[in-house]
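This section describes the prediction task in plain terms. A model, or a person checking by hand, is given the sequence of a single protein chain and must write out its three-dimensional structure as a string of C-alpha cells. No templates, partner chains or ligands are provided. The sample shown here is typical of the held-out split.
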Amino acid sequence: MKNEVFNGQRFWTYFKYDLTQMWRNHVKAAIGIGLSGLIVYVVTVGFNLLFGHSWGGPTLVARWVTFAVAGAALELYQTRTYGYLTDRRKGSAWLMNPASTFEKWLSMIIITIVAIPVLFLGTFLLSDVLVAAFDPTVGNSIVHSIGSGMRDLTAELADINVEYSTTWSPWAFIPAMIAGFCCNFLFFLLCGLIFKKNKILGGFVIIFIFSSLMSIVMSLIDMNQLAIELEDFAQAESWIRAIFYTTSIVSVFLAAGIAGGIFWRLKTLKH
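The expected answer:
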C-alpha cells in the first residue's frame, strides 16, 4: 500500500509534470525576465548607433540596475506562477492531480525557491558574461564585479578584525541573504494563492501594514539612550551582532512560517 502523504516515485512523476507545466505556461515571462540584460544591451547599442553613431553597450552600473529590477520583477511574478489555483476551473483540475497535498506543496516550494531563481541567475549572468567577453565597451561582467567586491570586502573585514580584535567574515552575510530571498519569493507565492484578484496589490497592502506596525514598535525605543550606550565599541559590536543574528533567525522562521501558510492554503483550497 502506497504512503498517502509521500511516495518517492509518485512525487518525482508529479514534480516533472509540474516543472513541465510551469515552463509551458510561463516560457515568455521566463525569457523576458531572464534575458532582460541582453535585451537592454541590444536596445542600448541600437540607440547609440542611431543617435550617437558609435558602438557602445550599457555600463556596469546600468546592468546592475537591470539585474536588480529583473530580480524584483521575478519576485512579484511569483503571484502568477501558481495564482491560477484560485480559478475555479483550473484550480479544480489541479486538485484532481494524482499526488498528495504534501507532494504538491513540496514541488511548489522547490520550483519557487530553487528552480526558478537558479534558472534566472544562470540565464541572466551567463548572458552578461558573454556580452562582457565579446564587447569591451561594457566593461567587466556582473560576475567579475561580485568576485572583486567579495575580495575587497574580505580585505576590509580582515583589517577591521585585526584593529578591533573581531571575527567578522563576509560569508556570514550569505545565510541571511538566502533567508531573506526565500521570504520574498514565498510571500508573493502565498499572496498569489490567497487573493483571487489584485494579487500584487494585496501583497503590498500586507507589507504596508507590517511596516507600519514595525514603525510603531521602533518608535518605542529610546534612540538617544541607545546612542549613548553604543558609544563603546565593544558594546556597539555586541549590539550589531545581536541584531544581525536575530534578523537572520527571524528570517528563517518567517520563511518557514510562510511555507507553512502555503501548505495550509493548499490543504484548505476549495472551489
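For orientation: The chain has ten helices and no strands.
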